[in-house]
């Protein structure tokens, strides 16, 4: 049994860590290690100290030492979180499985640890697995708004809409100005004149001062106003929210245009790069501009009994980044594109498959990857994964502009900085269109382009074309994609749980005057409208 004074040191070290006093926490934990070199609890605290200081790899080593001496729920949970930060998803999943073993053995855990486990599962796309942990966190700390929010979001991802509604409402009752809760609640279902949150959203927005809160509330209010028939006022709230947010970004569309240019300029090098020991796996990549039907096609394909969806993976961009050896802030930039151009593409393909495996609910099954931004990498994918199938979604250019402008993407992701300006989206679309025509010219027949509107108007024939391109036999379940019970974590979650509907077609015409700047840019680029 550990001496009393060492137990006291550990207790004081944990208290100091919780108060943010890292030097004291580190000193006390080191004093324990000096007396007991196998103290798992001390190494755990030292690891968390290092992670808090930003020394992620050093913290990871200390946490591994801790769980090596004595696995604990919180040690494994923190280790999983660190592995995710290091983009080591397979190791994160192994740490989560060890945490589950500890729980099954009756080892103690607290609310923050259960929330950490839930967040780690969510990052891996395993939303069903996250539910029990988020629920446990809310039971352990019922007044914690962050825990309740995470549970509500997880419920929405797995299609438990009524339960998610209750959880969001419970959070709003505790924290009336919680903008994330209002935004999440608004997105659960289509609002009606008889059932909506417009008056409450107006009042909450009027009180809000924080820029991010105003952004979230502005989007929520805009969505609900449009759905109850107030299109003009809806667009004004949307325009104001996006304009205010764009002012805070250090972004110009020229940054993305340079990336498009670098891809095209470096393609001859990629086209001649070696492809040694390429994987034999045949994943299906669903690419395109966001909000153009990529989730819909993913649900159609993953409704086939021979397929499973891996969700929106960052695995291919990360595999390219790792191969480039470039340590810049962004996953995709001009330097990364240039440095990866002479690497063995077979190695990139194998790395991708290895990274994707930890996101698959059923090992060994063929899978789809619906990260839209993979359109940037279409040529590399085609060479690095010779058996892969690629489907590019297209939608009317003006509806594409509008749908990108209306959707609040992850504000922490730099992929979507273009989406807060009508003009920027139009210019981005121009470059997207040019790049897709470039890929079709360089790789004729390799990419199946599918028009979203055609799926809506001719569902069965287009579904047959999609399945044929993927090398899949016909299956009636693909027509009933809305019955697919798999989790959905994208903004399309509520839409793809409905049968096909036509009310999203030509929606841009409701805002034709406001969208005129985009129309001029598209027409000047020669894009047919």
UniProtKB/TrEMBL annotation:
InterPro entries: P-loop_NTPase, TPR-like_helical_dom_sf, TPR_rpt, TPST-like. The keyword Repeat does not apply. It comes from the Bacteria. Gene3D superfamilies: P-loop containing nucleotide triphosphate hydrolases (3.40.50.300), Tetratricopeptide repeat domain (1.25.40.10). SMART domains: TPR. Signal peptide: none annotated. Pfam families: Sulfotransfer_3, TPR_16. GO terms for molecular function: protein-tyrosine sulfotransferase activity. Keywords: Transferase. PANTHER family: PROTEIN-TYROSINE SULFOTRANSFERASE, PROTEIN-TYROSINE SULFOTRANSFERASE 2. This is Uncharacterized protein. It comes from Acetobacter tropicalis.
């Amino acid at each position: 049994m550990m001496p009393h004074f060492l137990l006291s040191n550990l207790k004081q070290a944990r208290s100091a860590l919780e108060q943010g006093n890292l030097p004291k926490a580190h000193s006390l934990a080191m004093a324990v290690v000096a007396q007991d070199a196998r103290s798992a609890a001390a190494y755990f605290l030292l690891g968390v100290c290092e992670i808090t200081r930003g020394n992620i790899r050093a913290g990871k080593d200390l946490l591994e030492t801790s769980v090596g001496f004595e696995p604990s729920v919180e040690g494994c949970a923190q280790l999983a979180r660190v592995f995710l930060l290091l983009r080591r998803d397979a190791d994160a999943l192994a740490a989560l499985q060890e945490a589950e073993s500890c729980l099954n053995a009756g080892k103690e855990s607290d609310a923050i640890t259960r929330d950490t486990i839930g967040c780690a599962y969510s990052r891996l796309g395993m939303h069903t697995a996250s539910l029990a942990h988020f629920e446990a966190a809310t039971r352990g700390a019922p007044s914690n708004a962050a825990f309740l929010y995470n549970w509500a979001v997880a419920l929405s991802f797995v299609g438990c809409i009524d339960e998610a509604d209750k959880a969001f409402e419970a959070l709003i009752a505790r924290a009336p100005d919680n903008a994330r809760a209002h935004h999440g609640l608004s997105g659960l279902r289509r609002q009606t004149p008889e059932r909506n949150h417009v008056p409450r959203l107006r009042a909450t927005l009027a009180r809000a001062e924080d820029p991010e809160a105003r952004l979230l509330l502005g989007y929520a209010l805009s969505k609900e106003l449009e759905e109850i028939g107030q299109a003009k006022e809806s667009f004004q709230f949307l325009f104001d929210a996006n304009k205010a947010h764009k002012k805070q970004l250090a972004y110009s569309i020229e940054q993305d245009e340079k990336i498009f240019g670098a891809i095209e300029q470096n393609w001859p090098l990629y086209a001649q790069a070696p492809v040694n020991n390429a994987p034999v796996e045949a994943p299906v990549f669903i690419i395109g501009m966001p909000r153009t039907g990529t989730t819909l096609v993913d649900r159609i394909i993953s409704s086939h009994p021979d397929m499973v969806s891996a969700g929106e993976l960052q695995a291919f961009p990360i595999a390219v980044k790792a191969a480039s050896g470039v340590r810049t802030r962004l996953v995709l930039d001009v330097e990364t594109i240039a440095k990866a151009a002479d690497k063995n593409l077979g190695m990139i393909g194998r790395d991708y498959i290895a990274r994707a495996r930890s996101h698959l609910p059923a090992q060994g099954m063929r899978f789809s990857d619906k990260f839209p931004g993979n359109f940037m990498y279409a040529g590399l994918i085609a060479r690095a994964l010779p058996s892969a199938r690629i489907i590019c979604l297209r939608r009317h250019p003006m509806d594409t502009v509008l749908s990108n402008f209306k959707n609040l993407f992850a504000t922490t992701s730099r992929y979507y900085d273009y989406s807060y300006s009508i003009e920027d989206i139009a210019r981005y679309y121009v470059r997207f269109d040019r790049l897709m025509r470039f890929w079709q010219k360089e790789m004729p027949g390799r990419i199946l382009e599918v028009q979203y509107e055609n799926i809506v108007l001719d569902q069965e024939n287009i579904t047959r074309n999609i399945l044929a391109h993927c090398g899949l036999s016909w299956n009636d379940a693909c027509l009933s994609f809305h019955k697919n019970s798999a989790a959905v974590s994208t903004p399309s979650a509520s839409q793809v749980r409905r049968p096909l509907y036509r009310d999203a077609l030509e929606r841009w015409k409701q805002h034709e005057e406001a969208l005129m700047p985009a129309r001029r840019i598209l027409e000047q680029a020669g894009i047919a409208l």
